[in-house]
Write a structure and sequence with these properties.
This protein is of the alpha+beta class and 508 residues long. It has two domains: 420 residues, 2-Layer Sandwich (Creatine Kinase, Chain A, domain 2), CATH 3.30.590; 73 residues, no CATH class. The strands form seven sheets. Strands 5-6-7-1-9-14 form a six-stranded antiparallel beta sheet. A three-stranded antiparallel beta sheet has the order 17-18-19, covered by helices on one side. The two termini are 24 Å apart. 45% of the residues are buried. The mean pLDDT is 91.
Length: 508
């Protein structure tokens, strides 16, 4: 099974201020997680967003110019770039940092959907507990956090799902197989949104749509993420052996509150990648994918048909049905989790067509629409009422006392795969079968000995030569557990490294 993970940028605001500095607020929020002073450990040398998966390197990105402008604005601030980032690696192997204007939580790498859901939910708890600490210092419940994708003033922030993929699959094959699926995935994974929005402008009310990110998609393919946002991002940062693997970095997805929607979003995407790797994906290429994303998002009846390159038209449900049937034919019996995804995928498509009310508490856009329609009937208002945008935001508030979705969940009206015990454990322990869990173990046991970290390696202090744990090709669960056993039982990281390297050298 492949590795996967989710990066979530949270919306942040303060109720006591008319003007909020999101750079400072995001930094202060991340630092509120700490019980000690910030110590820089994350090594940015391993990150290069200019490599393009289509086989070339771009000289510049739209976001480079924006970051230069940010740098000028930030020059007056009494902290450095790295202090501003406040980049933390947590005991569960997750990364928590200030992505300049948003606090971002990146789950550790996961191999099973239940682990991913637990780690994603742990992220909600971690950012909210940081907000609680920050609010105690401010003397009021001022800082509010939203697991959503828009501030309703023309700004979008992302929820990115990532997957390990084989380098041997040509990128054009990935493009052809993925684009129709991603365009239509919003019928399952959309978070729902009040109004229509354009970049750098406000919301036009009067309509409900499936996806919060659809309005901000601008091109089919691009290496950029902040401007000229693509349906399929082409950034080529594998965080693994680049000869063997690529990392599929998807920025089109919405941030989900419903566990079921997250499980289907990631689970179905994995199955589609399996189909592409087997050469079994359906041929459904669309004539204008960006137009189709918006058109499908704005049709809550799921009847809109978009043009394919062959001149025929097709609905979002029919696209999803084609992928589902291909996966059922090719991948049934692959493993227990894949069979669960197949079963739920098929049932969800059936209910979307016949009785979507049964998906309340499972799919975010269906759940939010039900809540808003109920409210509108009670208050006798229409879709153009500005009250609805505030309720849309409240749906995504991660404060259990304020969040509309979390209130539904507390009342037992939302589907869950995780238990409270799962989430509590995920706050401090990562998956035992991935390098993410191993990263967290090193933080728990030998934090004071870590000089620097990045996704695929950890450098320890001690001795004249660098002592490095290389994890770039550490994927097999048995190998991860064997390595973790050395670090769990050793008296020092150097002893653990020696035991691990001796094992590799002897093949034992």
């Amino acid at each position: 099974m492949r590795l996967f993970g989710i990066e979530t940028e949270y919306g942040i605001t303060r109720d006591d201020l008319e003007e909020v500095d999101p750079v400072v607020e995001s930094m202060e929020l991340v630092r509120a997680h700490l019980t000690a002073s910030f110590e820089r450990r994350w090594d940015y040398a391993g990150e290069d967003p200019h490599e393009d998966a289509r086989g070339f390197r771009v000289s510049g990105l739209a976001q480079d110019k924006e970051e230069d402008e940010f740098a000028k604005l930030d020059a007056h601030r009494p902290f450095s770039f790295h202090e501003m980032k406040s980049d933390l690696v947590l005991p569960n192997g997750a990364r928590f940092y200030n992505d300049h204007t948003h606090p971002e939580y990146s789950t550790p790498e996961c191999r099973r959907l239940k682990d991913l859901l637990a780690q994603d939910r742990a992220g909600e708890r971690i950012v909210q507990r940081a907000a609680d600490r920050r609010n105690r210092s401010l003397g009021g419940e001022y800082v509010q956090l939203y697991k959503n994708n828009t501030d309703f003033h023309g700004h979008s922030y992302g929820c990115h799902d990532n997957y390990l993929a084989l380098r041997s699959i040509p990128f054009p094959q990935l493009r052809a197989g993925l684009l129709p699926f991603l365009v239509s995935r919003q019928v399952i994974a959309g978070a729902g949104k009040v109004g229509i929005e354009a970049q750098e402008s406000g919301v036009v009310p009067g309509q409900f749509q499936l996806s919060q990110r659809a309005d901000f998609m601008e091109t089919d393919l691009s290496v950029d993420t902040m401007h000229n946002r693509p349906i399929l991002n082409t950034r080529d940062e594998p965080h693994a052996d680049p000869k063997k693997y690529r990392r599929l970095h998807l920025i089109i997805g919405d941030a989900n509150m419903c566990e079921y929607a997250t499980a289907l979003k990631v689970g179905t995407t994995q199955l589609v990648l399996d189909l592409i790797e087997r050469g079994a994906a359906p041929s459904l290429e669309l004539e204008q994918p960006v137009t189709a994303v918006k058109q499908l998002s704005r049709d809550i009846d799921l009847k809109a048909a978009v043009r394919r390159q062959n001149g025929q038209t097709i609905t979002a449900l029919d696209i999803q049905e084609e992928y589902y049937r291909a996966a059922e034919r090719t991948l049934a019996g692959l493993d227990e989790e894949s069979d669960w995804v197949l079963n739920e995928w098929g049932e969800t498509l059936r209910l979307l067509a016949q009785d979507r009310q049964r998906l309340v508490g499972k799919l975010d856009w269906v759940t939010k629409l039900w809540l808003l329609e109920t409210f509108m009937r009670e208050e006798r208002i229409g879709w153009d009422d500005p009250w609805l945008a505030s309720l849309d935001l409240a749906y995504h508030n991660v404060d259990p006392a304020r969040g509309l979705y979390l209130g539904l969940e507390a009342d037992g009206k939302a589907w869950r795969m995780t238990t409270e015990a799962d989430v509590e454990r995920a706050l401090s322990v990562g998956p035992s079968d991935t390098r993410g869990g191993l990263r967290g173990l090193c933080i728990r046991r030998f934090s004071e000995h870590i000089r620097s970290m990045q996704w695929e390696r950890i450098q320890f202090t001690g001795g004249l030569m660098p002592r490095i744990l290389e994890m770039g090709d550490l994927f097999e669960p048995a190998d991860v557990r064997a390595c973790a056993e050395r670090f769990e039982t050793a008296d020092s990281p150097l002893d653990a490294l020696k035991a691990w390297n001796d094992r590799k050298d002897t093949g034992s």
